[in-house]
Structures
1.
Amino acid sequence: MLRIHFTDADLARTRVAAAPDPLWEITFSLHRFQTRQGRWAYADWHRRALAALSEKGLGRALPTRLLPLFPRAAYFPDFLNPAEASLGLAAGLAAIVDTPPDRVRNEVGRLAVQPTGAPSWLTGLTEKENREELAAALKDYYNAAIAPYDDQIRARLDSDRHIRCRTLLHGGVERLLGSFGTMMRWRAPVLHVDYPVQDRDLHLGGRGLLLVPSYFCWRIPVALSDPELPQVLVYPLHPVSAPEAVGNRSERPLAVLLGRTRANVLRSTATGATTGELARAAGISASAASQHTTALRDAGLISTRRNAASVLHTLTPLGASLLRMGRPGGP
């Protein structure tokens, strides 16, 4: 159990990440190669990613270079997930390269005493040129195994972010912290998090907490090991059930009525979405998404509100009723 202790200042500084963190997605996608837990939810990705890695000549680097550095274990080095990655992959990789050698030595040493162990070559990461080679390998891995799924990942994270932000809007930070079901339980002023290691207390001390949703994280949230670093809590998205992964029969009548793409757009509007988010969720262009939202708005199923340079689409009562009609036991 991980217990995260909040002060009033921490509650004021708690926020939800605005975009996927590429290095955390690398980390957890590598974990997906090390276990069969949740394999059904990533089966298509697993097959295609292995093929892409082999095609790019990275098949050997996966088991010999990457997996030993990112073990699915109680500990892996914190310097592999720097805060700078919130600015993008290039910034995150640059931060890895610029990590002080003493910190690399200490964290690799901690990894070496774990039950999973660590190959001897990891000690060479104290040399900057070796960290540059690692950064290049991580970039190649990302481009082969994760970048092709960027739209799908962003659509899932956009949906989760809308849910969290609406919870924050209507109930404040404490309601947000209490919105994660059984994997986290808010008992003011402590957030109790299911965790794969022994009991641990983390005192934020006024720094706040960044909540980072992750597409490849499975079941259990993860925090950094070093309590002195800027604190993040990476959490899994709501899992897709097996029937939903292959297509939910209960949604077919709605697809017959509206067409499959327009039905997908309508469903994606359930938590509120911009035109770009709807396009990613439905796998269509932004112009096509705009045409579908115009048709749905003209039919009275959604409403549209402009906010600066973007627009937010939400369901009308009629649109919500139509969605409920297509569900088992609806309306």
2.
Amino acid sequence: MLYFAYGSNLHHLQMKKRCKDSIFLKKINLSDYRLTFRNMYADIEFKKKQFVTGALYKISKSDEKKLDIYEDYPIIYKKYYFTYYRKKVMTYTMTKKTGFTFPSERYLNIIKKGYKDCNLDNRILKKALKD
């Protein structure tokens, strides 16, 4: 299964600890969405002509179950599926769309390390923190 990470799961070491079978494939963009933070955690929301940059991972069924627990699925996050080059990709998005809340320094530092791990352009992250 393919999984799109855009928050703390961008951090390769953390992702490997959480999902031992996970394999980072490459960085990709999810069009018509934007990154935001709610309840101090990363989320994505529909927004025409914007995009979220993130990581595409290959994960096992057992990894998916671990992610479900970590993401508190289906209470805090629900699954969202999209197509990337005719392949189905799963990610998580928050169930309750509350207002913006700045993330904790610790959580933000994990995401920043993940941006480096995946060689992502951190302007998307900076923009999300300003919005």
3.
Amino acid sequence: MKAITDAMVRLLIGAPLHSDGKLTIVSLAAEAGLRRNKLTHKHTGLKDLFYALVKARDPLPEVESETAQARAAKQQQDLARVHAERDDLRTQLQLMARIVQVLEIENHRLKETNRNLRDQLAGHTAVPDLTRRRRT
């Protein structure tokens, strides 16, 4: 009977020595070093206690673990997406900076050209009025 209770404890804490660690009667029997029918026929009280302890247990850690793993995987995907967006924005920022620089250069050249044209026009006399007809 001590072997059965010790096996129960090992299975419930997740530290099996002689079985696969599943919370079943077969695993309990293997962990205790007994045949399954000893638990199902002779030690029915211990079998019922084991089932009650398994049922009263918090949700299975595997389910929580899967949920945590799924959450971690989603966070990794989100992080990868954010990194990709950041890299894309950096590339766009560099492109915009180049565009602004080119536009500033073009604007400076246009101002120079406009200043040169004004200087050339200032040196010329007034444009004659061609709408008046010359009378001879």
4.
Amino acid sequence: MSILSPFDALRGAQRPGQKAAAKPRMLLAGATGLLGNEVLNRVVGAQNYALVQVLARRPYVQSLRGMELLTQECDDVPQWPVQPADVGLIMFEPARLLYQRESALWTPQPAQLQAVAQWMHDCGVRTLAVVLPHDTGSLPQALKQGLSNLDEQGVATLGFERLIFVRSARERQKVSAGHFLQRMASTMLSSLSYMLPQTERPVRAMHVAKLVEAALLKAPPGIHVAPPERVWRAAQKNGLQAELQDWLGQA
């Protein structure tokens, strides 16, 4: 049995060790509303990302370690400078008026989905999650399970390695103005909402945030769509792991 000299031990200690895998960087558009705030706290607090850059309209004092504001001076998304990133997250919940922090953030409009996704792809993003507000009872079953409009189909053609759509149910938006027939139709649909199955009803923001966070980490390559029913089942006691296994093949 050979005995190491102090010089051998010193040389061994000076050798560079195996480098730890670099953590990915995230771009986040729409960290507003109850859901946006919950998702932001989870993705930053879990420390799975080297940096989470949140799109903003103007600076404000931030308090979350691992987060950085990325201020955009205009709404012309194609003119935004490229920011290197690996993961993207897009949400559409409006800012709450009484929260000054949220009023400083930039939230996309649904019509800007494809432009923001294209910009993120140009930034190097290969995994993209889109959390879409879904009015209860507004989509047929076939569309809830897949891509529901041309914008979503356009995002799917951009070439992301992993593309995740989470349809987060919300109460149908009230119509306070407009044509009489439009208001009548809205009232009828609102009354029919009481007949919706339990699995299509909204769930708490914390449960949606848990599903989004896990999907970003576990989704295999491909396009993955979570309809409101899956989001509801994942929110039930001990339901998250079972839904991840069924949806993504991951526990």
